[in-house]
Amino acid sequence: MSQIIRHYQTSFVVDNDKQTAANKLYQAQRVIGEWVKDHERRRFARLKRDKTSSFLIDGNFTHRAYYKSKFSWCKTDYCLDEDSTAWAIQYTHRDNDVRDVFWVSDIGLRAFNESGRLVVNVQISYKVSTEHALTGEPYEPSVSIPGCVEALLERFKGCRFFSGEQDVTEGIGRAITINDVDQASRIISYVESEDRKLAVVFLHGETKDTHEEADYLSKNLFGKALVYIVPYKVEIKKVLARFRLEFNECLFVPNFRVHKDLGRKLRYFVTNQKALEKTHQILLHSWLGYHPINERGAVSDVENVQLLIRRRKFFKLAELIQKSVPAAEYEKVKTQLKDMSGLFELSEAEKKELEEKAGQLEDRVGELEIQNLDLQIKKDELEDKHAAEVYNIKATQESLMRKSAENECVLPREYPGSFAALKAFAPFYKHLAFAEKAWDPALAYRNFKDFEIAWKMLHDLDQKLWEIVFVKRGDIEHEFESSTVFEYAKGEGAKTTNNARLVQMRRFEFEGKQYEMWPHLKYGNKPGKQLRIHFAFDNDRQRIIVGYIGEHMDNATTRTMH
């Protein structure tokens, strides 16, 4: 049991009058053959014997081949007509990474001698076998142009390429910037055409990110979509106003073939880069399998070429019979030939009818995929909205808790009984950082016992003073002292600041930078009952760096610390 899922399908016309159609067919066949050979060599690189030494292509476009191994199989066929030559290849190989998954590549080429056109049709599918098909385990292939298509585009560089009657040469591998109003008007006419086969993508803005995103989409949706960049020009925006393009917005307009009004239902608006990243892969996977694109006269697979061969053989036989049988006897077999011709035409008509029904079913599948995509996008939007609401609620709760802590000065029930215990809490202060030797004076301060005061002092420094300095940016001394029992001093007197020894005492190094700790908090003046915390402000990282905790620091009016 297996399930075949189309991954990538496109067709395009290579039009260049300088070369004959047969020559272009030959070049394209060699490119595809080398792609298969190279793929096979990579697959069998670990084997001692080269499995591809006599495989597949010999450089003659009339070559027919069939090859099969444990890991892959390949067959080709050709058809020679008076007005055209057709060649097709089907290459199937097992996926190296996923068990029981096979990739199927159907590539058809048809060259028309009179017009000098080469029509290329490429269809890449993956076939999921055995338990994968039974259990329905999802498998998402990568989003990219198949290597053979890139090789063909590179080989025919300089030619014009057409897809769905639209010249897509400029849109291969890079997006097209809309330059003027006339170009914008032509694009609108194409978008609203019922015969349009290619999807259209508009990205608004001319930033580097927009160009990179547009080029990525253009390359990976070759043969599926044309990608346009809408510049910041008022006159162009007016022409495209019906698409509601706003700043930093991306608009997807898929192709529609079922009904004219369906186009309005198949538009996707992505309002920002974050939303685009979420829907990016979903949209690409959806479009790569959305609607087959077949050019006039294209052949899509080996079976298609074999049908051309049978048709040619039949009419050659009928022509030979007409020439070789005497006129009297020919009348007897004429009716039989007519009946056979009728049966042949009927079988082809039935095949065409089945193909049309298959196309209608694919259109319906495409509609359902779009609906599913709509639901997925709405689901993502609701999840984002819910996540934002949860985040806002949590942020509000945290804000209320912080305000409560600041206003009520929530403190632990049992205060630390030493400066060593206080030091252990240092990493948990949100806005404080401590110099390496900041705690040394405190640890040497043996007769200080009021550790509740020390705790509150550090708490008010971390919460109240930090908010006044970095959030409110108000009068530090007035606002701080009106909300706490501690004094704030922004510095020392002139005698102290002019004394080199005292200045050096207030200098410290932290994280490779030099600081001076003139601001300080004060509590008490009696020995054993006083406490000072000196610090500096780190404006770059909005924090307070504590450089000293202990008794009154020596200044011009004292010779030693008490």
Tell me the quaternary state: single chain
Anisotropy-based shape: elongated
Q: Flag low-confidence runs.
A: 46-59, 256-266, 407-413
Instruction: Trace the largest sheet across and list its strands.
Output: 2-3-4-5-6-1-7-8
Overall SS class: alpha+beta
> Strand-residue fraction?
15-25%
- Strand tally: 20
First and last CA, distance = 92 Å
- The Rg value, from CA coordinates, equals 39 Å
Summed up, the helix count is 16
Average pLDDT for all residues: 77
Q: Helix coverage percent of residues?
A: 40-55%
What descriptors fit this protein?
22% strand, 8-stranded antiparallel β-sheet, 16 helices, alpha+beta, 5-stranded mixed β-sheet, 43% helix, elongated, 562 residues, 20 strands, single chain
Describe the structure concisely.
This protein has 562 residues and is of the alpha+beta class. The protein has helices spanning 21-43, 131-135, 147-155, 181-191, 208-220, 234-239, 262-265, 273-288, 302-324, 327-408, 419-424, 440-443, 451-472, 476-481, 494-497, 500-505; strands at 2-15, 65-68, 72-80, 84-94, 101-112, 117-129, 160-163, 166-167, 176-177, 199-204, 225-230, 250-253, 268-270, 432-434, 487-489, 507-510, 513-516, 520-523, 531-538, 543-550.
What does this 3D model show about the protein?
It is a single chain. The chain is of the alpha+beta class. Helix content is 43%, strand content 22%. It is built from 16 helices and 20 strands. Helix 5 links the parallel strand 10 (199-204) and strand 11. Helix 8 (273-288) packs antiparallel against helix 10 and helix 9 (302-324) packs antiparallel against helix 10. The model is unreliable at 46-59, 256-266 and 407-413 (pLDDT under 50).
